Amino acid sequence: MNSENLMLSQASDLEKATFYKKTYLHVAYALLAFIVVETLLLQLVPAEMIIYMISGRFVWLFIIGLFWLGTTMSNKMAFAPTQNQQYLGLGLYVLLEAIIFLPMITIAMLYAGGGMIMQAAVITLFMFSGLTAVVFFTKTDFSFLRTALIVGGFISLGTIVVGAIFGFDLGLWFSVGMVVLASASILYQTSQIKDQYNTDQYVGAALQLFASIMLLFWYVLRILMSKK
Q1: What is residue 175's predicted lDDT score, i.e. its pLDDT?
Q2: In the chain, helix, strand, coil percent, each to 5?
Q3: CA–CA separation, 169 vs 146, rounded Å?
Q4: How confident is the model over 53-99, as pLDDT tens digits?
Q5: pLDDT of residue 111
Q6: ∠ CA(146), CA(102), CA(111), 5° rounding?
Q7: If you write DSSP's letter for every residue of 43-81 in order, what string do you get?
Q8: Is residue 91 within 8 Å of residue 33, measured between CB atoms?
Q9: Global pTM value
Q10: How many Å is the Cα radius of gyration of the chain?
Q11: Do residues 15 and 3 lie in contact, with contact meaning Cβ atoms separated by under 8 Å?
Q12: CB burial class (10 A; 0-12, 13-18, 19+) of residue 27?
């Protein structure tokens, strides 16, 4: 069997260590790229356009739809046969996350300053590190979470769409529920990476983890903002 296509569960300790190093390094690069792109957008996008994104219900639905389409394409590209396509998929996903976060970051900066964003980032990274440690140290198979994540994802998406159409606030408990869903996603994705991925799929693995981190960050930030 080609070592580049070897299942991680069948790989040597050295190959596993190399894979994990590459995966989490790419997650770090994706987070750094997100910060850079978000900073540029905050400087370049006119405030009027950001306000329009916040106030326009159907504009927001269009953005969510575009984000969903782009996410689907990015996921396919991240597992493409060539690394150029994989990196293109990860880069596209980072750009989409920066766009979707633009209104939220703007509001947080206006009403609470950068301190709240930093606090949310620290909480998110601590939670991510703890959840990752649970998977690796307990050696538990979290694949049983797949059905719950699919059902929870459809329910949450439907709730968000209905809330956007009818203009009602989803509230604190929805954000808490989404933090739970994002945490479960990190457990599931980390478990899948450990047991189901090939040693050459570290870009795709990084994309999956990055997506779960950003979902967690979004709702941790929402919870902190709701207290203001």
Answers
A1: 81
A2: 85, 0, 10
A3: 28
A4: 666 666 666 666 766 777 677 777 777 778 888 888 899 889 988 98
A5: 76
A6: 110
A7: HHS-HHHHHHHHH-HHHHHHHHHHHHHHHHHHHHHHTSS
A8: yes
A9: 0.85
A10: 18
A11: yes
A12: buried
Query: How far, in Å, CA of 220 to CA of 226, rounded?
Result: 10
Tell me the two tokens of residue 38.
Answer: 């978000």
Distance CA 194, CA 77 (A): 21
Q: How far apart are CA 56 and CA 84, in angstroms?
A: 36
Three-state secondary structure readout of 9-36: HHCCHHHHHHHHHHHHHHHHHHHHHHHH
pLDDT of amino acid 31: 95
**Predicted pLDDT at 155:** 81
Cβ atoms of 83 and 22 within 8 Å: the answer is: no
Question: What's the rounded Cα separation, in Å, for the pair 85 and 100?
Answer: 22
Which parts of the chain sit beneath pLDDT 70?
1-5, 53-64, 66-67, 71, 164-170, 227-228
d(C-alpha 168, C-alpha 147), whole Å? 28
Distance CA 22, CA 222 (A): 31
**In the structure encoding, which two tokens stand for residue 33, read together?**
């790229």
